[in-house]
């Protein structure tokens, strides 16, 4: 059982294991040096990348092995902009702070959107009073002024149960935290008296175990536990809307729809053939894997154009260093892939 206010913050980074291929023939040995592929960042994007890693390792007959971990989008960017990792998974566009940090350290990056996510608000199935929640009600729960004051469900809505309001959400090294707080509260800050973690599985288990819980995380973590969790319909002024592929496509699940990314170290991609091989494999297999893990794939044309941009070493970001709250899939693609030149890219 996870206790309220306990620190579930779980920063996990699995270093790449360097394997040497030792071939024995006629009493002699031959050693080939393997190349590292280091990946960290978002726990939201982790299921996609980890599945790609497993398929890549299974299909790869050379001495290359990749492993992926997660410490949150923000925690991952800290390492990425120091040159410690070659790929960063991110559930938000690279923030301005890390655009500046990467520039200072001479780290050029290639921004590759890989999926769309419906950030999902969930309750325990025993909750029979809050099937739909307005954006304003979510704000009243999570804003900094609610800390140690809004502690029961009926304080948010008088028609809801007079029971403890136990909150579970992303830690501050998570891009999900940044996106959720900007989208719902309007600022990059929230109350602190909640159970938080960069490990979405820990949050899932917390809500499953607590009948009075409310939490939020990426849609894939909800979809893989639908029998034990209850998605909440979000009312942004047009009635309650549940997250789904369709409500992402028709732009009705707002404001919690967002693109997901990987960022690739451009210089290392040119120097490390293993990294180039892995990224190409990623883009070739992304559509199928994204669907398998529970997110919405981009159109096939998007992955093809992303591969062209990767091959051309197109560096920079088309975003302004802040979470993107309004882009539809088509708007995202038009912005990112409108041309093959560098117009619109920021470094």
Describe the protein.
The protein is of the alpha/beta class. Helix content is 35%, strand content 20%. The protein contains 13 helices and 16 strands. It has helices spanning 46-59, 73-80, 96-104, 135-142, 153-156, 175-185, 200-209, 219-223, 245-249, 266-271, 273-293, 300-311, 329-337, and strands at residues 21-25, 28-32, 38-41, 67-68, 87-90, 109-118, 120-123, 132-134, 166-170, 195-197, 213-217, 230-231, 233-235, 240-241, 257-265, 296-297. It has a six-stranded mixed beta sheet. The protein has a five-stranded mixed beta sheet with strand order 10-9-11-7-12. Helix 6 (175-185) links the parallel strand 9 and strand 10. The protein is elongated and about 60 Å long. The model is unreliable at 1-32 (pLDDT under 50).
Break the fold down into its secondary structure elements and pairings:
Blueprint: E1 21-25, E2 28-32, E3 38-41, H1 46-59, E4 67-68, H2 73-80, E5 87-90, H3 96-104, E6 109-118, E7 120-123, E8 132-134, H4 135-142, H5 153-156, E9 166-170, H6 175-185, E10 195-197, H7 200-209, E11 213-217, H8 219-223, E12 230-231, E13 233-235, E14 240-241, H9 245-249, E15 257-265, H10 266-271, H11 273-293, E16 296-297, H12 300-311, H13 329-337
Parallel strand pairs: 3-4, 3-5, 8-13, 9-10, 9-11
Antiparallel strand pairs: 1-2, 5-15, 6-15, 6-16, 7-11, 7-12, 13-14
Helix pairs in contact: 1-11, 11-12
């Amino acid at each position: 059982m996870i206790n309220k206010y306990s620190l579930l913050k779980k920063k996990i980074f699995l270093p790449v294991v360097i394997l040497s291929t030792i071939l024995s023939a006629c009493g002699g040995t031959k050693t080939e040096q393997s190349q590292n592929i280091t990946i960290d960042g978002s726990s939201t994007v982790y299921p996609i990348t980890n599945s790609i890693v497993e398929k890549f390792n299974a299909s790869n007959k050379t001495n290359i092995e990749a492993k992926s971990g997660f410490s949150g989008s923000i925690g991952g960017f800290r390492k990425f902009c120091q040159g410690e990792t070659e790929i960063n998974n991110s559930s938000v566009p690279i923030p301005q702070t890390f655009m500046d940090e990467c520039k200072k350290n001479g780290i050029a990056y290639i921004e590759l959107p890989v999926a769309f996510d419906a950030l999902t608000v969930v309750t325990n199935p025993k909750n029979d009073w809050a099937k739909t929640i307005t954006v304003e009600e979510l704000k009243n729960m999570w804003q900094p002024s609610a800390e140690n004051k809004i502690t029961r469900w009926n304080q948010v809505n008088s028609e809801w149960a007079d029971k403890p309001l136990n909150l579970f959400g992303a830690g501050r090294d998570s891009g999900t935290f940044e996106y959720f707080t900007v989208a719902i509260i309007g600022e990059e800050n929230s109350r602190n008296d909640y159970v938080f973690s960069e490990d979405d599985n820990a949050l899932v288990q917390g809500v499953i175990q607590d009948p009075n819980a409310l939490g939020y995380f990426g849609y894939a973590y909800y979809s893989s536990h639908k029998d034990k969790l209850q998605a909440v319909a979000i009312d942004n002024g047009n009635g309650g809307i549940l997250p789904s592929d369709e409500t992402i496509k028709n732009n009705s699940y707002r404001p919690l729809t967002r693109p997901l990314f990987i960022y690739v170290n451009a210089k290392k991609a040119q120097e490390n053939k293993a990294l180039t091989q892995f990224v190409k494999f990623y883009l070739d297999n992304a559509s199928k894997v994204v669907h398998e893990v529970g997110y919405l794939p981009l159109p096939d044309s998007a992955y093809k154009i992303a591969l062209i941009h990767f091959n051309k070493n197109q560096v920079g970001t088309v975003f302004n260093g802040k979470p993107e709250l309004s882009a539809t899939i088509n708007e995202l693609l038009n912005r990112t892939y409108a041309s093959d030149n560098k117009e619109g890219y920021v470094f």
